[in-house]
């Protein structure tokens, strides 16, 4: 077995580790953006109404956020080390170009951490106004932190802000131009809205499951309502930002668009393909439902517009078309379902004054939680795998950026064990906190509960 592990190329191990750690961290990052926003709203309602129910709701969420923030800090640190350990040529060549957003993200994280400390550990001594004023910067810093990180990924898709000399070194570095590259606006907005959608879906899932088990008090109804409200706002916005992102990909990365749609041949009236499995060798798609002209219309606002096919690009620059196409279909399909689900709930809220509580709807909300994570992961597969074989599109291939160090399989296995311990520990703590009675912890987010929970 060890011989077989060593025989696998370092590129495979490096890609696997990066995919695993990014896929795990991105869920925590979404909660780090979305949960503070919900906390801020709950604290605002408590401050405005004086209703202690809102204060208790915020206190329960604050405890969960503390656990997730700590685990997210560890998983995010692992990712930052991986950039240098796994991709030394990439960081050695382009570190000066993309260093600015990572530096600014560090400042945003420290601001967030400072106010997290103030809010969590000073909550028992702060007035409702003080708690509200301490949690708002957390929500802002979380979104700003996500913005800075995603700008680096956007740059990898549409690199700007430097020239690459014949000696392989970068010259004329313009960090601000690199950070605000053409992909920055749509990628950052699309990701931040996704964070709110995932958070709203997961929070609604937790309270829907509790209500299905018979816990239908005011606390759980409020938690469900807040989660559904955030998700119902974010879901249609995500469709708008997704269409915007698709337009920009069509303009800036036509090869990625062709892979997303499994569009092999250049032509007019390009079809939009639903479902299907691309056969790269035969250059056709099996089992798809084609809507003639729809891709041309969506990409260029003209059903007769020409859409470039994969045939226009060197085959050694094609990404894995089946993976990208299927991931794109999963993302769009689940996103459409979430819009319908939360839109139906919002319509019921508007008509009846309450969110639906029928068991079939609550079960659908429970399913929406993991479905939103699946859509999130599929979106990142489209973004990252759709850029392959480039780590910096057009300038450096992923195979040229990877380390040649031995023993990457042991590093990957160690990372798996670390993340397993982190997530099992976090799950256990969250389960313990959820088991606490609702009338505990009246004095602040991390006040002592029943003498045994600090």
Automatic annotation (TrEMBL):
GO CC field: cytochrome complex; plasma membrane
InterPro entries documented for this protein: Cyt-d_ubiquinol_oxidase_su_1
Keyword rRNA-binding: no
Keywords noted in UniProt: Cell membrane, Electron transport, Heme, Iron, Membrane, Metal-binding, Oxidoreductase, Transmembrane, Transmembrane helix, Transport
Bilayer disposition of the protein: Multi-pass membrane protein
BP-aspect Gene Ontology terms: aerobic electron transport chain
Enzyme Commission no: 1.10.3.-
Subcellular location field: Cell membrane
Top EC class for this record: oxidoreductase
Pfam families: Cyt_bd_oxida_I
UniProt family annotation: Belongs to the cytochrome ubiquinol oxidase subunit 1 family.
Protein name: Cytochrome bd menaquinol oxidase subunit I
Originating species: Engelhardtia mirabilis
Origin organism lineage: Bacteria, Pseudomonadati, Planctomycetota, Planctomycetia, Planctomycetia incertae sedis
């Amino acid at each position: 077995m060890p011989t077989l592990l060593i025989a696998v190329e370092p590129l495979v191990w490096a890609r696997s580790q990066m995919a695993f750690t990014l896929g795990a961290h991105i869920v925590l990052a979404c909660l780090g953006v979305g949960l503070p926003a919900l906390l801020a709203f709950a604290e605002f309602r408590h401050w405005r109404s004086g209703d202690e129910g809102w204060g208790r709701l915020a206190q329960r969420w604050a405890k969960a956020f503390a656990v997730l923030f700590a685990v997210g800090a560890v998983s995010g640190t692992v990712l930052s080390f991986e950039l240098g350990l796994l991709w030394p040529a990439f960081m050695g060549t382009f570190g000066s170009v993309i260093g600015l957003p990572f530096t600014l993200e560090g400042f945003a994280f420290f601001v967030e951490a400072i106010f997290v400390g103030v809010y969590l550990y000073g909550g028992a001594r702060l007035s409702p106004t003080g708690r509200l004023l301490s949690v708002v910067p957390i929500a802002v810093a979380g979104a700003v932190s996500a913005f800075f990180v995603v700008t680096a990924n956007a740059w990898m898709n549409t690199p700007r802000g430097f020239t690459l000399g014949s000696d392989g070194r970068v010259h004329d570095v313009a960090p601000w131009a690199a950070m605000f590259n053409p992909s920055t606006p749509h990628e950052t907005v699309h990701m931040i809205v996704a964070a709110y959608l995932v958070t709203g879906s997961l929070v609604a899932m937790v309270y829907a499951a509790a209500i299905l088990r018979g816990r239908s008090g005011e606390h759980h109804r409020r938690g469900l309502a807040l989660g559904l409200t955030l998700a119902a706002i974010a879901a249609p916005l995500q469709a708008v930002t997704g269409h915007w992102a698709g337009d920009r990909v069509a303009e800036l990365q036509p090869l990625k668009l062709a892979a997303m749609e499994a569009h092999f041949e250049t032509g007019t009236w390009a079809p939009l393909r639903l479902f299907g499995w691309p056969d790269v060798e035969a250059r056709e798609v099996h089992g798809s439902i084609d809507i003639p002209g729809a891709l041309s219309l969506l990409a260029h606002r003209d059903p007769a517009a020409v859409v470039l096919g994969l045939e226009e690009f060197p085959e050694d620059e094609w990404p894995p078309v089946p993976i990208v196409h299927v991931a794109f279909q999963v993302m769009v399909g689940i996103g459409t379902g979430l819009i319908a689900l939360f839109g139906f709930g919002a319509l019921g809220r508007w008509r009846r004054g309450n969110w639906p509580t029928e068991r079939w709807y609550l079960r659908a909300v429970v399913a929406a939680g993991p479905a939103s994570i699946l859509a999130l992961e599929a979106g990142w597969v489209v973004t990252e795998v759709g850029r392959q074989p480039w780590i910096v599109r057009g300038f450096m291939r992923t195979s040229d950026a990877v380390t040649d160090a031995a023993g990457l399989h042991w590093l990957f296995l160690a990372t798996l064990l670390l993340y397993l311990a982190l997530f099992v520990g976090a799950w256990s703590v969250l389960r313990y906190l959820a088991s606490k009675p609702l009338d505990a912890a009246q004095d602040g987010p991390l006040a002592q509960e029943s003498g045994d929970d600090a």
